[in-house]
Amino acid sequence: MALLPKALEDLIDALTTLPGVGRRSAERYAYYLLRRDSSRTDAIANALQNLHKNVTYCPITFALISKSEELSSLYTDTRRDKSIVAIVEDAFDVVALENTGHFKGTYHVLGGLISPIDGIGPDSLHIDQLLLRIKKDNVTEVILATSASVEGESTALYLQKQLENTSVKLTRLAQGLPIGLDLEYADQITLGKALEGRRLL
Amino acid sequence: MALLPKALEDLIDALTTLPGVGRRSAERYAYYLLRRDSSRTDAIANALQNLHKNVTYCPITFALISKSEELSSLYTDTRRDKSIVAIVEDAFDVVALENTGHFKGTYHVLGGLISPIDGIGPDSLHIDQLLLRIKKDNVTEVILATSASVEGESTALYLQKQLENTSVKLTRLAQGLPIGLDLEYADQITLGKALEGRRLL
């Protein structure tokens, strides 16, 4: 005998397909939605249905854009310097860098990081388009803004090799102590990088 | 300038209405769904739209049932003893008790616990229907199976007062050490309850 109605079980099953959502969290979400008005459930359902309908990728930078736009406004904006390109893993990294207010160049979203374990090779990423763009836009500096993880480092290394015979200046985001972290709580690798990259005052 | 397409922002906003889901988790869910096939997004959207369409409450026990059923099968099943009623807070508590395989009575879902801080008084709960049912089904035992929290205790106390002039036997789930917990890690209240409720061997 099924203990919960089928429609509720179906929703719980559907919600557990989300990353990091287990049976318990899915039950909690489903039961919360059930106790509230159906308008809230419908709002989420509509937003889900509009996602693939209205969102696409910029064919040059691979940043996320609305289907009503042709290119990312962070690329077409004439105040942005097209000769400087920051390479990031995904679209949310663009938001993170933009929020610093420190960057006036353009972006190139790789769509992932090289990770042989997960079967992601260079061919799965938007690297060919990057090489094309470097020529077309006369790019002078490429900032490797992938994360400081193993995959981020391997991807940066791969791109470095791809670009070593060009005149493009390659830079990498600084690695070191995050602001606010007590020295004694920093891990050895971070501390090692901070020491290695020490600056003259 | 909006950094993310509107449809993506809308979905992130919609997902943050779920309990315990912050901006970061919502972004993670939305981005995950965007990178996968639209069939997955549609599956969740459909399950959401079916929820309120197909799920309702049993008018006697207030357990969750499909709209195609009239009453909860845990009530109509003739092998269940209608004279014993376990009072629980919500529908998932029914599942938890059923999964023990130890209970052959019926259930009554209160739909919450008395909590003056949250504005939930006895009138918001299915208590009148419980009193009716006790008469109609000749209930002999009511098991107060609310949780061992402040609200669970107040609700149990309130029900105890409502039923003190009837011949119904009132019982409460045992409180004490959970299985597998080391004595030294038990909190004082739990340990106090375990001592108070000690049994002769």
Radius of gyration of chain A: 22 Å
Oligomer: homodimer
- Category by helix and strand content of chain A: alpha/beta
Distance between the termini of chain A: 73 Å
Strand content of chain A: 5-15%
**Molecular shape of chain A:** globular
What would you note in describing this structure?
The structure is a homodimer of 201-residue chains. With 201 residues, chain A is an alpha/beta fold. Chain A is 43% helix and 13% strand. Chain A has helices at 6-15, 23-35, 38-54, 73-76, 91-100, 127-136, 150-162, 188-196; strands spanning 55-57, 64-66, 81-88, 105-109, 141-144, 169-172. In chain A, the strands form 2 sheets. Chain A has a 4-stranded parallel β-sheet. In chain A, α1 (6-15) crosses α2 (23-35). The longest helix of chain A is centred in the N-terminal third of the chain and has 17 residues, at 38-54. Chain A is globular, with a radius of gyration of 22 Å. At the A-B interface, α1, α2, α3, β2 and α5 of A face α1, α2, α3, β2 and α5 of B.
Protein traits:
homodimer; 201 residues; alpha/beta; 6 strands; 43% helix
Task: Outline the fold blueprint.
The structure is a homodimer of 201-residue chains.
Chain A: H1 6-15, H2 23-35, H3 38-54, E1 55-57, E2 64-66, H4 73-76, E3 81-88, H5 91-100, E4 105-109, H6 127-136, E5 141-144, H7 150-162, E6 169-172, H8 188-196
Parallel strand pairs in A: 3-4, 3-5, 5-6
Antiparallel strand pairs in A: 1-2
Helix pairs in contact in A: 1-2
Briefly summarize what is shown.
The structure is a homodimer of 201-residue chains. With 201 residues, the first copy, chain A, is α/β, with parallel strands linked by helices. Chain A has helices spanning 6-15, 23-35, 38-54, 73-76, 91-100, 127-136, 150-162, 188-196, and strands spanning 55-57, 64-66, 81-88, 105-109, 141-144, 169-172.
